[in-house]
Amino acid sequence: MRNLPHDTPLLSPASILSDSWRRSQHYGLARDDDHRPVAGHEQLGESRHRYDWIARYASPLLAQLTPQFRTRAGVLVLSDPGGMVLESTGNSGFLQKAEQLALAPGNVWSEDARGTNAIGTALALGRYCEVSGKEHFLSRHAALFCAAMPVYSPRGELAGVIDISSPASLPWQDATQLLSRAAWQIEQHWVQKQITAGQVLVQLRPQGQPELAPFTHSLIFEDGILQGANSLACRDFGLQPQDFGQRHQDSIFACAMENGALAWMRDTAYQMHIDRAQKRPGVIVPDQRPGKPAEEPTALLAPSGVNLEKTLRVVNAGIALCINGETGCGKEYLGQHLYRQSKWRSGNFVAINCAALPEHLIESELFGYMPGAFTGASSRGYAGKFREANGGMLFLDEIGDMPLALQTRLLRVLQEKRVVPLGGNSAFPVDFSLVCATHRNLVEQVERGLFREDLLYRIQEFTVEIPPLRQWQNKGLFIEQLWSELGAPVRGIRLCQSVVSYLADCPWPGNVRQLLSQLKVLLALSDNGQTVTLCDLPDLPRSAHAPLSVPPTTRTPNETACHAPCINELEAIRISQGNMSEAAKRLGISRSTLYRRLEKQRA
Ligand SMILES: Nc1ncnc2c1ncn2[C@@H]1O[C@H](COP(=O)(O)OP(=O)(O)OP(=O)(O)O)[C@@H](O)[C@H]1O
């Protein structure tokens, strides 16, 4: 068992292990126990709904990491804070085995259920853990190597873990780096999505230390009071869950000064970065206090083909808006932008993913309930999402996936503008801006009997189509804006024109989401002051890599290899469908020579 290098080593790994074994015995477990704690379908659905951070912030990352598991036996697992596996993905061969090894969704890995194991012990201690082979308390898990990193919510609560499991004979040596980076990315995304109008996001970014580069300390303040933070900030500023909504930034920064946290940050040349909701990140000098943005607000990076001004007028008039577009093209991003600019910004922005709501929870979640309305209901009752959105914006994501029964009830709320909570008699009036989003063709859904026609007319009073990124007119400019939003100018890193043109020509099936993550990777891999050239491009996922101008080929690599002396660089790339390594091989040169030649041609 190992603990994370930057954790305070209060206990040695051996004592962590022996303490965990002692706890396992205390739970009444025996090493040869063979019971398999697995949650039912309903419980799994409930937990997935309750811990929707996994669907929102972790699943996209999982999808990005999955290719690493193609050639290595292993799986990535995400669990809730009770140790229940909610998602697993990875090497398909090992996944099958993992199902037998109980790593499929629904299996419970808390320490009291299975004794010492990475997921359960990481949750019990709130820190990174690796458990290998016979270190597992239950003998039947001795075939596994597992490493788990806790994930914390922006309010500093333990939200679950991300885990890598592989055969004990093939332990995942770089699990620490992969998991700490993944947990940080999830938390960072989560924190950034929390910021609402009037709040300020303070980010402390390391400068000049490539190994620290991706790790940013993030804190959210509203009127100077702490509202959120990632776990790095919680750790280094000594923040506790009870500090949220209570502690003032002055006291937080003063304490950090006193205990040396800020001095440590200055030593590692941190830059403080402030982002106000509605305003673009502004760089301020480190000794300036958070609260004032350094730059004037700018408009959002508008997707091409969308008339923002017209759309905002529609939203302000209370007209229901439907945003269509492929996944990752920025539907929710546009919704949030409209909300912040609109007259609805003093209310809440309430986003619901209709595809992720388990059917039996829908009613109580949307309509709310009265105290004691059903077994297990909170004694304080619950207002429900419709009422939470009152005076603000209700963003219904994946509306095309809403179950038919709920469509009927939604239509009634929209028509009557009143909500009756479960177990209640009186109706509460609601008034909100309705914005729906979908990647589906709703007219087709109506024809197939999957979507109510009357609801379609009600939610599609005005429609905006965000085109796929590959069809945007101004991709080069957009890439440069994103690059600068990511903070590249602060580090003096620029993209050379051939890189911008190359990226603009990639098809980006994952749209802005995919482009953004590739730019983040590129930035993380770059040195301060560097000009990024084609030679510096990391391997992009194959589907994103093939520039649009590359037509498919029917020739096999062997056929084309015979013609190698006759083809030039561009032909080789075309024939290789954009795979630069393959193209270089065809030409009999190295990948970097190929990039250098292309660079020369474009100059
Ligand atoms: N115009 C934009 N400018 C800057 N960032 C953007 C823009 N559009 C999208 N993004 C970023 O791209 C990512 C995906 O955007 P978003 O979640 O809004 O897409 P979506 O279309 O709602 O995706 P899905 O259909 O999968 O829910 C987010 O990180 C978002 O911040």
UniProtKB/TrEMBL annotation:
Domain of life of the organism encoding this protein: Bacteria
Listed GO biological process terms: regulation of DNA-templated transcription
Domain Sigma-54 factor interaction: start-end pairs: 313-524
The keyword NADP appears for this protein: no
Keywords, in A-Z order: ATP-binding, DNA-binding, Nucleotide-binding, Transcription, Transcription regulation
Pfam families for the chain: AAA_lid_14 (PF25601), GAF (PF01590), HTH_8 (PF02954), Sigma54_activat (PF00158)
GO MF entry, a single one: sequence-specific DNA binding
Name of the protein this chain belongs to: Sigma-54 factor interaction domain-containing protein
Organism: Mangrovibacter phragmitis
